Predict the structure.
Amino acid sequence: MATAPPPRRVVVCGGGVVGACTAYFLATHATAPTVPTLVEKSSPACAASGKAGGFLALDWCDSTPPLSALARASFALHRRLAASLDGASAYGFRPVHTLSVCVPSDAGPASPHPPLLPPWVDPSASAAPPRELGTPDTTAQVHPGLFTRAVLAASGTEVVVGEVDRVVVREDGRVAGVGVKGRGVVDADAVVLALGPWSGRLEMIREVFDVSGLKAHSIVLRPRDPDTITPHALFLSYQPEPGAKMLDPEVYPRPTGEVYICGMTKDAEVPDDPATITGEPDSIAMLHKIAGRVSSQLKREEGAEVVAEQACYLPCTSDGLPVIGEMPGVKGCYVATGHNCWGILNAPATGAALAELILEGNAKIVDLAPFSPARFLKKRSKRGV
Ligand SMILES: Cc1cc2nc3c(=O)[nH]c(=O)nc-3n(C[C@H](O)[C@H](O)[C@H](O)COP(=O)(O)OP(=O)(O)OC[C@H]3O[C@@H](n4cnc5c(N)ncnc54)[C@H](O)[C@@H]3O)c2cc1C
């Protein structure tokens, strides 16, 4: 049987890390390189992909086998991409040490510096000796916004600013393009929907599966003496006061000299316009409190400069797995969303697998079967929905 020729016109919708990586691997495919058009509502990396931590781990998804394969393939691709695209540390890829630190509610009396704790972390920030969670062989980081924009730039993709409001399907069930608000239809032989937590705004997706957004906050600080900050990612556990909810913020020093701190998640409606998302004052204030408990270098009153106070939404699915594959019943329309707290890690293998599926007819780098959107159709028909 003759195989169908690869599509000539591909449109990627959404300029987050998933859309950007998909564009990159389409454009750099070994035998059928295809530079897509990318339609983005606001600006590339304006949402979670620009405000995430950028932490990468080889084996932290191993307890979920399908995700483990995606994560391991992605971790390897991150190294490969950094070798070819991260010249002069353009997006700050670097291996890191990763520690678990239990921060006591009160600073308490001065104590000796625990051996594993980096020198810029105050000894009073660690109730017990820190535990090693990852080494430079198994954990790394990128600056997520710079990474997203770097892969997109390297793909040579044209970015059209506009809001995709529908997928246009021919009578024979093949995709024909996407409708862009106020601009008409952009024609396509293949369409990739990479809209993060906004995916469910499209009727075609909403009819098959749900995507929700989980709001998370972050702050970025420039410490008093950036040169003393070492590449250590810290996973904290912190109870602000006895009886209060346990918090699990994360701290990522960046090669730029800045320190990023995130946490404080809550269910909240995803606003239409990504540019209007702001952090809630109590959550931002708690992140500053935690920063000050970790290191006096991160205290505003001791000279730390506030670079950003922000929030964004994790894209979540009902079964916790991403959705990657062809939409049931619509030939040539693909979806990639629901990457939850691992989208920066898992975007490269997602993009590479989609590029293979679109241009060659099947994905080789990872098995996409467990991520297919069709899994939700089965569940819905069992429930009679
Ligand atoms: C606080 C926080 C910390 C995180 N830390 C990490 C981490 O350390 N490591 C990690 O691996 N992951 C991390 N993540 C998760 C990661 O950020 C996300 O999984 C990832 O960014 C999702 O990427 P995306 O491209 O699917 O979605 P998004 O980044 O949300 O991008 C979707 C894009 O689609 C655009 N869009 C929406 N609707 C339309 C439309 N109708 N038409 C056109 N464009 C549209 C939006 O403007 C947006 O640019 C973190 C997330 C948060 C919130």
Q: What stands out?
A: The two ends are 37 Å apart (CA to CA).
